[in-house]
């Protein structure tokens, strides 16, 4: 097979007219020519850090959406499903990913559970991590979320890092806001990357100390604009990632969107393409073609180098997407789950007053970090109740792995005036989390999720809406484009309840993420992410 166009040699920062000769899935030859071509061929894009589960799609369906945007590979952390199902969850992701011709490169998740301050469905001990890392298919140790454990030299944490070093595989980091001496200790332990950086100076400090920075632009956390100007200064140390991408956003765009935006920002195209295509290959040692003779024929054809509209996507010489249409077939998705809790009653979500002032989680649009504020709330019959006028609502987390009383707190900035939303996508242990105006609404929304053994739900008045997620309570078994439409609908309904957040369900999913400051809620109680301990909801 021969394909002619303007060849974008990203490795050498040159562009020339030429023809690719493809044989046996590889580039057999690249011949320069004197012809004039309208289109450009360049290496395919790579998402350098993503949790496929957060798209609510099985890997096979994630691939069908991603290839339409020129993505040919992902560096994927199966941390989410591992917290639900352990090794069986990781195996599910690998096997399902093999059902389509897309390049998934999975890591071994070291923080399962992420902390001891929440209930997860499984645990991966040192033996499990070694069993994964000795497998050539597993390319790296996934994000080391327990950064206090690294700095405090926790023996189990350090042992998992040593295992990665033993097999010569890089260790991904997770260090939001970490600076100074603590950061130096974290890097010295062997951590090579960070995708949680949200401040420019923080990013520059990490890069100056030799870390690789994964610039994140997901559905909830959007850090690209803040960090993008670091790319020109540290071109070999930057990569692009989404981390968490909801299905409607994945339909709209992926890494290609960051290339388009970078043009407007005036960032050098070749430097950006190195971040999007080359740097992940070099750092993780993944087998993705870079338009060299002998490489796998993984590349894309675009109309120009300004809008980067993807005309065709090739993986191993086969067209997998053309003009926005995926050419990968739908692959049946088997169900695998761990969901044991029973139905709830509204009375379980009442919070008896033990003081006047309470600590409140402050949600922040486009961020996974939260604030922490205090306020005096209204009381009715000795129970603390939400204050809709001040946008302070009740939040609850229900243990999905066994029957136990729910954990109750309050949250600011969700904006809802009526009803409740609930989700079994609740990082990192994926218990059921809900935010709402009344105990009845919260209970109804949570029970919808429980009834379906996973999903996103909305409850208000007599309305009950759900997007079922029967695969681990995290993913749908349906066609990705259909799931995107269903998600857009339930997202729209949540916003009609009054939420002003751009992605209310995504933001909700991070309200139980204890390893991100400042204040979060697990199934065991209110948690201070800076002091890394439980605190009383009532201010002392």
Which helices and strands, and how do they pair?
Blueprint (H helix, E strand, L loop, with lengths): L1 E8 L4 E10 L2 E7 L7 E4 L1 E6 L8 H8 L4 E6 L2 H7 L1 H11 L5 E4 L19 H8 L7 E4 L2 H5 L3 H12 L4 E3 L6 H9 L4 E2 L5 H9 L3 E5 L7 H4 L10 E4 L5 H6 L2 H11 L3 H16 L14 E4 L7 E6 L2 E5 L2 E2 L24 E2 L4 E6 L8 E6 L2 E2 L2 E2 L7 E7 L8 E6 L7 E4 L8 E5 L2 H13 L3 E6 L2 E6 L11 H17 L7 H6 L9 E4 L2 E4 L4 E2 L6
Parallel strand pairs: 1-4, 5-6, 6-7, 8-9, 10-11, 11-12, 18-23
Antiparallel strand pairs: 1-2, 2-3, 4-13, 13-14, 14-15, 15-16, 17-21, 18-19, 20-21, 22-23, 22-25, 24-25, 24-26, 26-27, 28-29, 29-30
Helix pairs in contact: 2-3, 4-6, 11-12
How would you sum up this structure in a few lines?
The chain is an alpha+beta fold and 540 residues long. Helices cover 26% and strands 26% of the residues.
Give the helix level as a range of percent. Answer: 25-40%
Q: Tell how many strands the DSSP assignment holds.
A: 30
Morphology call:
globular
Helix/strand/pairing category: alpha+beta
Spatial separation of the terminal alpha carbons = 73 Å
Total helical segments: 15
Low-confidence stretches: none
Strand content: 25-35%
**Strand arrangement, major sheet:** 3-2-1-4-13-14-15-16
Report on the biggest sheet: 8 strands, mixed
Radius of gyration: 23 Å
Average predicted confidence as pLDDT: 95
